[in-house]
Request: fold
Amino acid sequence: MTSYTLDGKETKNRPSPDVEIKSKTRWEGVALVTDSTQTFASGRGDVSMKTREILSLGEDHDTLTSTMTADSPFGKRTITAVLGRAR
Reply:
């Protein structure tokens, strides 16, 4: 389990003994934005990856869009997921 504050203060989470995630979450208008730096051990030493996740509720209030951008030594990628309300 990970936890965050919503006021821009840094939080630290350890989802496993070899991984530390430092995050800052804040509101930007109606979007919730989390910037994180994840550090983990690899065969080549410690690796850091920066991520940004933006959560926004659709105007219809029936969809939630999550856009995650990850920037690591292995490259940059963006994943977008749109979740719909179950009826």
Q: What stands out?
A: Residues 29 and 53 are 15 Å apart (CA to CA). The chain is about 0% helix and 70% strand. The chain has a mean pLDDT of 90.
